[in-house]
Specification:
This protein is mostly helical. It is 69% helix and 6% strand. A 3-stranded antiparallel sheet has the order 1-3-2. The two termini are 18 Å apart.
Length: 144
């Protein structure tokens, strides 16, 4: 039983570590960090923009961390926020600027390359099964 635990936790930890390394190296070349990358990614998928609250749920970060990330990206000229009144800051849409869309396009190419390289040895059916199993395991872990 301990061997199963060690294998599972070791593999999940190692994959997460590699993902963080890749994000740091590949996205660092674009001047982005981990959370920046995820915010830019989701905004790139949603032309109408997303609220900071939505981004926090999608990126799985607290709203304060997302607010800091959005502020940083806004200062860099990558995103813009709609105007907001006191208390509504987390609900106004955040959108990519033209420069942000260019960065997001570069990110998409990097992401596509990494995903293709990391799953090149898997058939489409194996990939489908892998994602289904991972979702099942995550669901079970969330119940614990």
């Amino acid at each position: 039983m301990n061997n199963r635990f060690e294998n599972f936790v070791g593999l999940v930890y190692a994959m997460n570590k590699e993902i963080q390394r890749i994000k740091s190296e590949k996205m660092g070349s674009l001047g982005l960090r981990g959370t920046d990358t995820m915010v830019m990614y989701y905004l790139g998928q949603n032309d109408a923009g997303l609220s900071e609250a939505d981004l926090a749920r999608m990126v799985n970060q607290d709203r304060a961390a997302i607010s800091r990330t959005v502020s940083k990206l806004e200062k860099g000229g990558y995103v813009k926020r709609a105007s907001w009144e006191d208390g509504a800051k987390y609900r106004v849409p955040v959108q990519l600027t033209a420069e942000g869309r260019q960065i997001a396009s570069s990110m998409d190419k990097i992401i596509q390359d990494v995903v293709e390289q990391s799953s090149a040895d898997l058939s489409p059916q194996e990939r489908e099964h892998m994602y289904a199993w991972l979702e099942q395991i995550l669901g079970r872990l969330e119940e614990v």
